[in-house]
Amino acid sequence: xxxxxxxxxxxxxxxxxxxxxxxxxxxxxxxxxxxxxxxxxxxxxxxxxxxxxxxxxxxxxxxxxxxxxxxxxxxxxxxxxxxxxxxxxxxxxxxxxxxxxxxxxxxxxxxxxxxxxxxxxxxxxxxxxxxxxxxxxxxxxxxxxxxxxxxxxxxxxxxxxxxxxxxxxxxxxxxxxxxxxxxxxx
Length: 186
What we know:
With 186 residues, the protein is of the alpha/beta class. The protein has one domain (5-179): Lambda Exonuclease, Chain A, CATH 3.90.320. The chain is built from six helices and eight strands; from the N terminus they run E-H-H-H-E-E-E-E-E-H-E-E-H-H. It has a five-stranded mixed beta sheet with strand order 2-5-6-7-8. A three-stranded mixed beta sheet has the order 1-4-3. A hairpin with a 4-residue loop joins strand 7 (121-126) and strand 8. Helix 1 runs antiparallel to helix 4 (99-114). The longest helix has 16 residues, at 99-114.
């Protein structure tokens, strides 16, 4: 039986598939023992969404759990304005539009659409510099849509036992590197 994929894991899997294992392993521990400063800051920035204090408007969904049975996805959205149809994924600071950021937004879009919501626009928002990045819908960017579905397939078929990291830069920037037996820094 296929398991649901956490939307929050899409970007992590692209960074390093083994990081998903460590995220689950460390999920019950105090984050301060292993999290980077950037992750801690991201969690602080996300508190208003997670605690449903970002907006009191009834037509704005914040931190709402969404599912796609078709794609076997689950997770939380950041902000969906039902009046305008704008779905927003917030990041602390966007320096580069990584595919993983866009794929998280795609997953939220597919889930909301399957749940009956009318999503009209997609946006990434960089909080530190107050920049907006409009994102085309998957059908408007066939290459990214294909990469998104390939990612979902890769996650469903991933085998940690046979995984070998090949990019030392990822190990250099990984908070789980000290615990990882696939690190290229050993």
